[in-house]
C-alpha cells in the first residue's frame, strides 16, 4: 500500500479542514481527488506530506508512519503544489541544480528530456517566468529524481493545451513504469484520461470512491435552453431532466442530463426551442448535480 490514512482529521481551531478520511492508494495506481474548492483536497495532500500535523488520526506512506515535519521517507516522493513559489532570483537551471543536489545522482538525459518535452527554457530568472512556466519548473522538479510516488495538486493549471497533452504522456509513461500518482483536479477530462480510481471530497469528508468506469454522472451533459416565445418548460423538456430557471436570465433554463449528446439532440427535436447549448460539466457542476440536496457522508471502500 503506497498511501493509507486512518480517520485522518485536521481542524484549524473550530474550522473544518478534513474529517475522518480513510484513504487507500495502491502501489502503481493513479488516483484522482476531486471536489469543489474548499472541500479539503489541499489540506489532505499537505497532511500526507507532513507539512501539516493532523488533529487526530494517522497515515502511512510506503507502509511507514508519516514523519511529521519531513524525513528520509520523502526522498521517494515528488510533490507539485497548486501555487508554485520558488526563489525568484535563481534561474530555472540553478533551481534544478539545487533540487538535484538533494537526490544525487540525477540522470542528465532525463532532466533534458523533461525540459524539452514541456518546452521549458531553464536559462531565465524565475521572477521573469509566467505562471505556466513556473508550473513547468515545478513539474520538472517533482519528476527530476524519478520518485516512487507523485503527489500533484492541480498540475495542469496555467499550462497551454499542447503542454498539458505532453504532461499527460509523461505521467502515463511514469505510471507504466510503476510510479504511483495521486493528484487533485477540477477537470473531468483529466480524470477520464489518467485515473484508475477517483475519490470525491465534500466538506472535508471522502464521500464516495469509484473506479473511473463506474464514475457517477460520467456521461452527464449540462443543457441550457430557452423555449420559443419564452414559454415555461413543458412535459417534453421534463423528459430529459428537471429544468431549473437560471438566475438573471429570464426564460432560460438549465438541465443536467445523464445521456450522450446524440440522445439529447434527438429528444430536443420534440421541443420548440429558441436557443439551446450542450456542454460537458466541470467537476464542480458534476459534483453539485450528483449531491444536490443529498447529505450522504458515508465513505465507500477507499
SSE layout:
Blueprint: E1 3-12, E2 15-21, E3 24-25, E4 30-34, H1 41-48, E5 56-61, E6 64-65, E7 77-80, H2 92-100, H3 108-117, H4 131-143, E8 149-153, H5 161-176, E9 180-185, H6 188-194, E10 197-202, E11 205-211, E12 220-227, H7 235-238, E13 244-245, E14 252-258, H8 261-268, E15 273-279, H9 283-291
Parallel strand pairs: 4-9, 4-10, 7-8, 8-9
Antiparallel strand pairs: 1-2, 1-3, 1-5, 5-6, 10-11, 12-14, 12-15, 13-14
Brief summary:
With 302 residues, this protein is of the alpha/beta class. It has nine helices and 15 strands.
Helix proportion range: 25-40%
Task: Tell me the number of structural domains.
Answer: 2
In total, how many beta strands?
A: 15
CATH class of the largest domain: Alpha Beta
Task: Please state the oligomeric state of the protein chains shown.
Answer: single chain
Question: What share of the residues does DSSP label as strand, in percent?
Answer: 25-35%
Query: What would you give as the CATH superfamily of the largest domain?
Result: P-loop containing nucleotide triphosphate hydrolases
Strand order of the largest sheet: 7-8-9-4-10-11
Shape: globular
How many helices in DSSP terms? 9
- Mean pLDDT over all positions: 88
* CATH architecture group name of the largest domain: 3-Layer(aba) Sandwich
The CATH topology of the largest domain: Rossmann fold
Largest sheet: 6 strands, mixed
What are the main properties of this structure?
Rossmann fold, about 300 residues, about 30% helix, about 30% strand, alpha/beta, disordered C terminus, globular, 2 domains, Alpha-Beta Plaits, 9 helices
Amino acid at each position: 500500500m503506497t498511501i493509507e490514512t486512518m480517520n485522518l482529521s485536521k481542524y484549524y481551531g473550530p474550522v473544518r479542514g478534513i474529517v475522518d478520511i480513510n484513504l487507500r492508494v495502491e502501489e502503481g495506481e493513479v488516483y484522482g481527488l476531486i471536489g469543489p474548492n474548499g472541500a479539503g483536497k489541499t489540506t489532505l495532500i499537505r497532511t500526507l506530506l507532513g507539512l501539516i500535523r493532523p488533529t487526530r488520526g494517522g497515515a502511512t506512506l510506503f507502509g511507514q508512519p508519516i514523519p511529521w515535519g519531513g524525513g528520509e521517507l520523502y526522498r521517494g516522493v515528488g510533490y507539485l503544489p497548486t501555487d508554485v513559489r520558488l526563489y525568484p532570483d535563481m534561474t530555472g537551471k540553478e533551481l534544478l541544480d539545487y533540487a538535484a543536489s538533494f537526490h544525487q545522482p540525477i540522470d542528465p538525459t532525463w532532466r533534458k528530456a523533461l525540459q524539452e518535452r514541456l518546452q521549458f527554457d531553464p536559462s531565465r530568472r524565475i521572477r521573469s517566468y509566467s505562471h505556466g512556466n513556473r508550473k513547468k519548473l515545478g513539474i520538472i522538479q517533482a519528476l527530476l529524481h524519478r520518485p516512487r510516488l507523485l503527489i500533484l495538486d492541480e498540475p495542469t493549471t496555467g499550462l497551454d493545451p499542447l503542454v498539458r497533452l505532453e504532461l499527460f504522456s509523461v505521467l502515463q509513461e511514469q505510471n507504466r513504469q510503476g510510479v504511483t500518482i495521486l493528484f487533485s483536479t477540477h477537470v473531468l477530462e483529466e480524470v477520464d484520461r489518467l485515473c484508475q480510481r477517483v475519490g470525491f471530497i465534500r466538506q472535508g469528508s471522502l464521500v464516495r470512491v469509484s473506479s473511473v468506469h463506474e464514475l457517477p454522472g460520467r456521461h452527464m451533459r449540462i443543457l441550457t435552453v430557452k423555449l420559443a416565445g419564452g414559454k415555461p418548460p413543458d412535459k417534453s423538456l421534463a423528459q430529459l431532466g428537471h429544468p431549473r430557471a437560471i438566475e438573471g436570465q429570464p426564460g432560460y433554463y438549465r438541465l443536467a442530463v445523464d445521456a450522450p449528446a446524440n440522445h439529447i439532440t434527438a429528444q430536443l427535436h420534440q421541443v420548440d426551442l429558441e436557443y439551446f447549448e450542450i456542454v460537458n460539466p466541470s467537476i464542480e457542476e458534476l459534483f453539485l448535480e450528483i449531491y444536490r440536496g443529498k447529505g450522504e457522508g458515508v465513505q465507500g471502500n477507499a
